[in-house]
Design goal:
- Among the domains are: 195 residues, Alpha-Beta Complex (Isoleucyl-tRNA Synthetase, domain 2), CATH 3.90.740; 163 residues, Isoleucyl-tRNA Synthetase, Domain 1 (Orthogonal Bundle); 61 residues, Ubiquitin-like (UB roll), CATH 3.10.20.590.
- Helices cover 37% and strands 20% of the residues.
- The protein is built from 28 helices and 35 strands.
- The longest helix has 24 residues.
- The chain starts with 5 loop residues before the first helix and ends with a strand.
- Bound molecules: ligand ANZ and zinc ion.
């Protein structure tokens, strides 16, 4: 018998698929339903693919192949998220050209993807660093600019001193750079922003229209957008004439408990308030110190609340009382109005602050079950209750009071109801070379001038210096100096490039029309495929990437370029790959190289193990014996076909008549149903594999003398069911079984509904309490019918010969006991 040699079979079929252009996306086949299966595209690092990638692609490929067999026209593309800092760092550290470095990594990853047997349409490959692609990214930037969604603003930005670049809020983790772990500082710079906050409400509301997204991911997005309903309340500052300071609060019900006002140190009013005061200089140096603290180190729950009294006073809008105005680190300038009303009795942060600086604490909410408010507070009370010390609102439930106090403020002209978001506009400027240049020039006479669309792309220059200090683009004279598109005079080119998250916010649209040289994509082509039906990728992208992609989709929809309002109908977060219980990582030395596994066992074994070993959303613990087990299973499949080679030559018709063949037939059809539903409805690929394994056990236990036609059918269908999991092996076996076509072009098997129900039961026949015989009866038969059938059997008649039957006891589905003498 020929042995199973994946090392030969796999490259052979990869070449044939490639020569046949087997996974080319169907075009203009409007009679078939579409399915867009997508996996997050990889970053082309020099290391090639890791097991997380393999897991992601194995699942995506399974879905794509399954849907093709189910009759869908499928778009299943791949590309590379190819801009970004590692290429530039390689240039700085090793003097390599970032473009060449990236392109060769892309090539390497493509080859590895081919070795995995993934059914991508390679004609639609998209690399975000190619001029064809970034030209389109620039086009989209200009679209945003035209629509007032791209703007330049001087802002206090997160700056990584090590990477020498600005970071988006999302890229600051625990106050540190997400890439290099350096402590992030604040810096004032002119930057480009995209106005994602204009879409905050829609980004929030439309989450409700995504039933196939995990609830957990929607919650993460909701929290990120962070919508807060509340009120703005104006406090006048008598010493500045008519001037006011406006605070944002979600708790107007606590208004009578305000004992001070706190401004963010960056608040524009601060200068006026401290001007001429004795401690003016001290406040200023305090402000300088706070400004350099990161957002997290200012607002963390366990961070020390630091502040200073400005010496100025504000007037309470309802009581007229004078209260001090402070500045403090825990108030942020870019949230709400940058000013807070301090209610130490009922707000945790205010409570800590008031304790530190000995500010008065005024209780205004009393728990429902208490008689009278305690005067001396040990701890803050943040719960619900009844208003006290609140003038006309005393006795009111605090939830009711939220609206009532706000209404009162509105009536008196001291406030308005507002909504605030945690979401900030998206800072896209990067002082980096290896990114998409922002297509803008600066002219002394015309100001900010967008590069006309026909002049795109603004190409990355080659004459740059990578010294690891400043933005390399500023070192290219030929790039920086340009002519103004508007007046023809001398101008300077923008040297910021875009955050790579811009590139990945629309790549799924490019796949629908990857070779378009005029527009990013054609509306009709995009509408044919969008939305993506199934998107798989790491949960680490659940906030940033998915939110930005949703934002871009909505902008393009509004611009009339796209019907879809959401990019991904279903998002499936991929579980992590572990080894011996901990994350695979170089530092732990527990990395299993996918290519080593392929060399040793073949891609099919790797794919099967990955799909079988854990539910897709769960963590996958890589273990060598599990891999061996999957390999053994594929060997069994291989042998099963080899041993029955002869049968495939004459291929008898199935005649499932006697017991064994009926049973195998039922097992086969049950398996088809289970595998179909596990993939289609539940995405439980692991249980689908174990169902197929049980079927194979059934086939191996099938008696030699039972109907051969049923056996042939079961083996063939097993091979078809396995095709999306192990594409090479099944293709090879399909050929060995005598077929000229590809197994991947077979229609997915239908199950025979009537075969699923159990028609017959085996029951035990006892005579005087002793088991004497086994008999098969119809499952539908009632007691009398069972008795009639059993008593009519030859064998039973023999056993009863010479005896008189006294009584027959029937237990349906189990036994018949005959009492006889
Ligand atoms: C008075 C008050 C009393 C507050 C109380 C809370 C509880 P969320 O829910 O996150 O939107 N706040 C407003 N602007 C701020 C800023 N720029 N920096 C820091 N804190 C700020 O939080 C809204 C609450 O956070 C607001 O309601 C305000 O404190 C504070 F018992 O006002 B509150
Ligand atoms: Zn000009």
């Amino acid at each position: 018998m020929k042995p199973y040699t994946p090392q030969e079979i796999e490259p052979k079929w990869q070449k044939i698929w490639n020569d046949r252009n087997a996974y080319k996306t169907p075009e203009n086949e409007n009679d078939r339903p579409k399915f867009y299966a997508l996996e997050m595209f990889p970053y082309p690092s020099g290391e090639g693919l890791h097991m997380g990638h393999v897991r992601n692609y194995s699942m995506g490929d399974l879905v794509a192949r399954f849907k093709r067999m189910r009759g869908y026209k499928v778009l299943h593309p791949i590309g590379a998220d190819a801009f970004g800092m590692p290429a530039e760092n390689a240039a700085i550290q090793r003097g390599v050209n970032p473009r060449e470095w990236t392109l060769s990594n892309m090539q390497k990853i493509k080859e590895e993807q081919v070795r995995l047997g993934l059914s991508y349409d390679w004609n639609r490959y998209v690399g975000t660093c190619t001029p064809e692609y970034y030209r389109a990214t620039q086009w989209l930037f200009l679209l945003c600019y035209e629509r007032g969604l791209a703007y330049r603003k001087k802002g206090s930005v997160n700056w990584c001193p090590d990477c020498q670049t600005v970071l988006a809020n999302e890229q600051v983790e625990d106050g540190k750079c997400w890439r290099c772990d350096s402590v992030v500082v604040k810096k004032d710079l002119e930057q480009w922003f995209l106005r994602i906050t204009d879409y905050a409400d829609r980004l929030l509301e439309d989450l409700d229209d995504l039933p196939k997204w995990p609830e957990q991911v929607k919650t993460m997005q909701r929290n990120w957008i962070g919508r807060s309903e509340g009120a703005e309340v104006a406090f006048s500052i008598p010493e500045l004439g008519d001037e006011e300071v406006t605070v944002f609060t979600t708790r107007p019900d606590t208004l009578y408990g305000v004992t001070y006002i706190v401004l963010a140190p960056e608040h524009p009013k601060v200068e006026q308030l401290i001007h001429g005061k004795p401690h003016e200089e001290k406040v200023r140096s305090f402000i300088e110190k706070v400004r350099n603290q990161s957002e997290l180190s200012r607002t963390g729950a366990d961070v020390e609340k630091l502040g200073m009294d400005t010496g100025a006073k504000a007037k309470h809008p309802l009581t007229g009382e004078e209260i001090p105005i402070w500045v403090a680190n825990y108030v942020l300038m870019d949230y709400g109005t940058g000013a807070v009303m301090g209610v130490p009795a009922h707000d945790e942060r205010d409570f800590q602050f008031a304790k530190t600086y000995d500010l008065p604490i005024q209780i205004v909410i009393q728990p429902h079950d208490e008689e009278s408010p305690s005067s001396d507070m040990e701890a803050v009370y943040t719960g619900e209750g009844v208003l006290v010390n609140s003038g006309p609102f005393d006795g009111m439930d605090n939830r009711t009071a939220i609206g009532a106090v706000a209404d009162r403020l509105v009536e008196e002209g001291n406030g308005k109801k507002t909504v605030t978001y945690r979401l900030r506009d998206w800072l896209i400027s990067r002082q980096r070379y290896w990114g998409c240049p922002i297509p803008i020039v600066y002219c002394d006479s015309c100001g900010i001038v967008p590069v006309p669309a026909e002049e795109l792309p603004v190409t990355l220059p080659e004459d740059v210096v990578f010294d690891g200090k400043s933005n390399p683009l500023t070192t290219s004279e030929s790039f920086v100096t340009c002519t103004c598109p508007s007046c023809g005079g001398e101008a300077r080119r923008e040297t910021d490039t875009m955050d790579t998250f811009v590139d990945s916010s629309w790549y799924f649209l490019r796949y629908t029309d990857p070779h378009n040289t005029e527009k990013p994509f054609d509306a009709e082509k995009a509408d044919e495929w969008m939305p993506v039906n199934h998107y798989i990728g790491g949960i680490e992208h659940a906030v940033l990437h998915l939110l930005y992609a949703r934002f871009f989709t909505k902008v393009l929809h509004d611009a009339g370029m796209l019907k879809a309002t959401e990019p991904f109908e279903q998002y499936f977060p991929l579980g992590m790959v572990l080894k011996n219980g901990s994350k695979m990582s170089k530092s732990k030395g527990n990395v299993v190289s996918p290519m080593d596994i392929i060399d040793r066992y073949g891609a099919d074994t790797a794919r099967l193990f990955i799909l079988f070993a854990a539910p897709p959303e769960g963590e996958l613990d890589w273990n060598d014996s599990g891999v061996e087990g999957s390999h053994r299973f594929l060997n069994r499949i291989w042998r099963m076909v080899q041993l029955n080679q002869e049968l495939f030559q004459n291929r008898p018709d199935p005649k499932p008549e006697e017991k064994a063949s009926k049973e195998l037939y039922r097992l086969l059809h049950r398996t088809i149903k289970k595998v179909t539903e596990d993939i289609e409805d539940r995405l439980q690929f692991n249980t689908a594999v174990s169902a197929i394994m049980q079927l194979v056990n059934g086939i191996n236990a099938y008696p030699q003398d039972a109907d051969r036609g049923t056996l042939v059918e079961a083996i063939e269908k097993t091979v078809i069911l396995l095709a999306p999991f192990v594409p090479h092996l099944t293709e090879e076996l399909w050929q060995q079984m005598g077929y000229q076509t590809s197994v991947h072009e077979q229609p997915w098997p239908q199950y025979d509904e009537t075969a699923l129900v159990q028609n017959e039961w085996e029951i035990v026949v006892q005579i005087n309490g002793k088991v004497r015989h086994k008999s098969t009866v119809s499952a539908q038969a009632d007691r009398e019918e069972v008795e009639r059938q059993v008593m009519a059997e030859e064998k039973v008649k023999q056993l009863l010969e010479g005896k008189t039957v006294r009584k027959v006891i029937v237990v349906p589905g189990k036994l018949v006991n005959i009492v006889a003498k």
